[in-house]
Predict the structure.
Amino acid sequence: MKAGKLVLFFLAGGLFGMGLAISGMTDPARVIGFLNVFGAWDPALLFVMAGAVGVYGLGMLILRRVKNQNLELPSAASSPIDRQLVIGSAIFGMGWGLGGFCPGPTLANLGALRIEALLFVPAMAIGMFLAQRFFGADR
Amino acid sequence: MHRYTLWQALIGGILTPRAMSCLSVGMGAKDSIAATLMFMVAAMVTVFIYNRVAL
C-alpha cells in the first residue's frame, strides 16, 4: 500500500474521532439519551447522523461522477435482507441500547482509556468471534 | 470454512460495510437501511424495557 494512502487513512481516522468527540457522541449517556424516546429524549445523535450520512452520500455522489479509475469506491449494491441480517441487527441494537456504545465510538473511548470501553471492546471481540465460529457469520 | 482469530473477528466486524451500515445508508443500499432501522428500533425498545425494569 502506498504511503500516501496510509496517510489518508490516518487523517480519515483522526477526522472521524474528532467529529465524534466534538459532537459528544463518544459519551454513552448522549447515545442512551437519543434512544430514550419515551423519556427525556435527546435528539443530538439524529442531527449528527443526518450530517454524517449527508456528507458521505454527497461525497460518494461526487466521486462516482469523477469516474477516476484509481478510486476504489465501495459498492452501493444491496445484499439480500435475510434472516441473518435481521437477527444480527436486532442483537446489535440490544447491545447498543444496554451499553450506549457502537464500534466506532467504543474504539475512540478505548484510546481515552475509559474503563467502560476497556471492558466493552474485549467482550465485543469475543461476541463477534463466537458468532463467526458457531453461527457461520462471516461478515 | 475459514476460522477467524479473535483479533480478526474484531477488526473484520468493525470494518466491514455491513457493520458500518449507518453510514452506508448514505449510498441508499436497501440492506443498510433495513439494518439501521432494525438496530435502532431494537435499541430503543431495549432502553425502554431497561428503564421500566431498573426504575
Notes: The mean pLDDT of chain A is 86. Chain A touches chain B through 50 residues (CB under 8 Å).
